[in-house]
Each structure stands twice: as structure tokens, then as C-alpha cells.
Amino acid sequence: MKRLIEKGLMFGNLIRVSSAAWTGLYNRALEKLTGRQTALKEFHIDITGYSPEIGDELGDMDYLAPDGGTRQFILLTTEQKTAPMLAADLSVLRDVLRRFIADNESQLFSLTARDAVIGQIDDHVWQMDGPADLTQIRSLRISADTTGNHVAEADRLTAMIDTFRNGRDAWWDDVLIARMIEQAKKSGDVLRHPVRLDHTDFPVPDFWTDDFGGVYLLRSAQEPAMIFADPDRKADIAGVVSFDLTQRHQIAAWLARNALAEPIISARGADAAPILRQKMDFVLVDAATRLGLETGNGGRQELRRAAARMGDGLPPEIRGLSALLRYAEQGGDWPVIDSGDPAYFYALRATPGPARDLVNRLLSELAPHDLRQLFITHKPLFYRLYQTWDEGKRAYVAEVLAREYQIDKQGTRDALFGSEPDMAEPDASAPPGPWGPATTRLPRVSLSDRGASRPAGPWGA
Predict the structure, then answer these.
(1) 44 — phi, psi (to 5°)?
(2) pLDDT digits (tens, 9 = 90+) for 363-417
(3) Three-class HEC string of the chain
(4) Over 70: is that where the pLDDT of 435 sits?
(5) 287-307 as b/e, with b when 16 or more CB fall inside 10 Å?
(6) Total-model pTM
(7) Region (Disordered) spans which residues (predicted)?
(8) Kind of pairing, strands 117-122 and 139-146?
(9) For 240-257, what is the mean pLDDT?
(10) Which of 56, 99, 154, 279 could make a disulfide contact with 195, Cβ separation 3.0–4.6 Å?
């Protein structure tokens, strides 16, 4: 993993903590949350205040999430909103915490100017006995305060002020007035400088979790679904259809019925040819590694020469991707590629919408050799697989990601997945796509339709 760290592909964009003041504030917060402190004078933290160096020092890489339970955080600065989140067991955690910081930025800026802010993220579910309990996670609530309880103290003073203003004969209550004066010494002037965190509840209709072997829950779709990475953990859940990643035909049909994915070739604004070439490169690197073929520096010409020597070992994905590439560059007849083709999911990307990022993560598991998409959308799985590769594949992948993604992250994401979706309604005059015209509401599929063995795909039956 050292190579990834050196190239900024792991532990990148963390916030550096090196001043004695920040270290002191962090230790005060850490002791209040965990009863422990760090002896490190310099370390780095993510958006939650988690530090891999401190985790290594304490021998507890989950020190801010004891027993995998309550997710706690430490904020030293509002600049943490730009940092990544390491070891997220719920895909929406970083986005929720980032929105919390952004929505309460002026208040948090004032609080962190004098103290560290500590808190926890609550999913309202006390115990996870089975996959069905995941459907109970509908929103996340963030509770936060400083280590000196500035928010709680301000709330107490605010309550006293309300009583003083609205209570009968409160103007003559000397005891109340004396308490208000003493409280103001602790909390300051809450009328001129209110200390209140208002935006603390965030709905989460769609998410991925690493519980139960990895599960996707998408409720924003017309036909809500739960998709299991581990077929042995799959369960029938009331109110949603259930799939596992081996049910490629059923997942393809579900994506099409709910208009959640589209072919890269016909996607608006996508430059399909270079995207397909890069996907083919990654597929060939994986095959060459498995077959023990030399690929030199991993350039495109070396990979093509290696492909010529693969014979029967040529990856089955290459045939379909090559047909799509020819169509993108030369036109002609639309390639007939259905969900039974190994190249099918490599040629898709999520459509704009609330579930876009989660669907792209799902597609990365269905097309696991597209390592660039896997790195961007599903880092936990990427890092786990990286440790199983040989040295040549690690070097190639790290070099490509550093050269083609790291230097322009947002540009690469826009090229691959499209720009961030806005709130505009779909254009009714737009030409129909391969699955037909876009619709705002799609019909739900009855339970009897779930077992279709091989549905028609966008490129053929």
C-alpha cells in the first residue's frame, strides 16, 4: 500500500494536525469520547477526525467507532469537509457529514475557533440482527457539541431567555435573572451570536453497507431493491425485491425497468471511444497478469501485443468491448450485446438522479476489471483487491490512476459519469434512448416478473 500512499491514492487530502494547540484540542476531545489520548505531535485526520496514525498507535483502527457501533467524530476545523472518509461502513456517511458541516458552517466555524466539536451519527437502529433491519435506516441524525458543552450551555440560556420573555411576572423573578447572568458568563451573548446547530437530520433512501457481506439498498427507484454481494446472505425482505450479484440478468432488467443505467455510447456528453479503450486496457492487464505475460511498461501497444499471444486466454469481455469501440469510432450496425455478455456492465453508466453514485458503485462490482471506476466509486473493495495482486499489476494500476485520475479528479469523474445532476425536469423533447423514451414514472414490476431468466437488454434480446 506504500505505493498508493506515495502517489496520493490512499490517505490523500487528509487534514494535517501539527500545532500544539490543535493537538491539545484533539486530545481533549479524544479523551472525552474514548478515555484515551495520543502522544503523537503530528498526525493527519479525515472528515470525521479519524487518524490512521493514531489508530496504529492505539492498536485500534476503529477507535472512533467502538465495537462497530456508534459512529463518533471530532471536528477541529470546518476545512475537514474537503477531506475523505476512511473506513466508511455506510456509503452515505461522508456525504451526510459534509452536508452537516456546510449547512452549519458559520456556527461550527465559531465553535471550532475556541474548542473542538465532538459528536455522533445516529442511524436510529439499536441492533442489526439481519438484513431486514437495514430497511429501518431511513435517516441519519447528527448530535454535536464542543468538549466544553458550549451548545448545551447556549441552549440553557436560550430557554431561560424564552421564559423571561414569555413567562408571567418573569420580569420580577430575581432568581431567574441571576441565573441568566451566570449562564451568560459561560455561553456568551446568544442573542447577538447564537450558537445553535439547526441542520442535523438527513434522509438516506439509498446506501451501501459492509454489513452482511456487503448490501446495496435503493429505495428511490420505482421498484425498491436490495442487492447482496454474498449470495449466501441473500434474504427475502418485505417491500423490496432481492438480488445477489450472481443474478446478472435480473439486475440488468431491474436497472432497465427503473431507468437507472444507460449505455456509455449513447449517454449525453460522453466521449465513448477513449472510455472503452481504457476499460479494455484494464481488462487486458488483468488477463496478462493471470497468464504470466510480459507487458513492458503497460502501454497500449504492449498490451495489444500481449493480447495477440493470449489465444484462448483472451478475456471474453474484449470481444464485446471491441465491437462497441468499432461502433463508437466507425458507426454501422448497433452491436448486439445482452446481459449474458461479459462486456455488458462495462458498457453502462448510471443515469443522473439521486442514486447515481450508488448505481455506479454497483456497476463497478458487476464489472470488476474496470479498476479506474472501482477505485473512484468503491475504494474499500479496491483496496481489498489491491492487496491480492502481483507487483506488476499494482505498479501499472497505481501509475495509470496517478496519471489519468489524480491530476484532474473532477474532470475524470465528469468524463466517465457525467456532470453532477441538477434539479431540472427531464426534457420531454429529447430523442428516445435504447430503452425507449424517458419517463418520470415507470410501472412497478409484479412479483411474478422477478424470475425472468434472461430479459431483453438494450442491445438485443
Answers:
(1) -125, 145
(2) 999 998 999 999 999 999 999 999 998 888 888 888 888 887 877 788 888 888 8
(3) CHHHHHCCCCCCCCEEECCHHHHHHHHHHHHHHHCCCCCCCCEEECCCCCCHHHHHHHCCCCCCCHHHCCEEEEECCHHHHHCCCCCCCECCHHHHHHHHHHHCHHHHHHHHCCCCEEEEEECCCCCCCCHHHHHHCCEEEEEEEECCCHHHHHHHHHHHHHHHHHCCCHHHCHHHHHHHHHHHHHHCCCCCCCCCCCCCEEECCEEEECHHHCEEEECCCCCCEEEECCHHHCCCCCCCEEEECCCHHHHHHHHHHCCCEEECCCCCCCCHHHHHHHHHHHHHHHHHHHHCCCCCCCCHHHHHHHHHCCHHHCCCHHHHHHHHHHHHHHCCCCCCCCCCCCCCHHHEEECCCCCHHHHHHHHHHHCCCCHHHHHHHCHHHHHHHHCCCCHHHHHHHHHHHHHHCHHHHHHHHHHHHCCCCCCCCCCCCCCCECCECCCCCCCCCCHHHCCCCCCCECCEC
(4) no
(5) bbbeeebebeebeeebbeebb
(6) 0.80
(7) 415-461
(8) antiparallel
(9) 95
(10) 154
The three cell numbers locating residue 116: 473542538
Phi and psi for 8 in degrees, rounded to 5?
A: 75, 15
The Cα-based distances of 44 to 31, 97, 272, 382 in angstroms read: 18, 18, 39, 22
Bridge partners of 292, per DSSP, are none
* pLDDT tens, residue by residue, 140-162: 999 888 776 656 666 666 676 67
Q: Which three cell numbers stand for residue 287?
A: 488477463
So what's the pLDDT on residue 73? 94
Q: Grid coordinates standing for 93?
A: 456517511
CB 120 within 8 A of CB 156: no
| Count of CB atoms situated within 10 Å of the CB of 439 | 11
Task: Give how far the C-alpha of residue 314 lies from the chain's centroid of Cα atoms, to the nearest Å.
Answer: 33
pLDDT band for position 438 (cuts 50, 70, 90): very low
Alpha carbon distance 382, 14 (integer Å): 19
CA distances (Å), origin 222, targets 25, 74, 218, 254, 451: 47, 38, 10, 10, 18
Which candidate, 313, 278, 314, 284, places its Cα nearest to that of 296? 284
HSE-CB of 85 using CA atoms within 13 angstroms: 21
Q: Are 91 and 361 in contact (CB under 8 A)?
A: yes
Q: Assess contact for 48 and 142: CB atoms under 8 A.
A: no
CA distance 170 to 265: 71
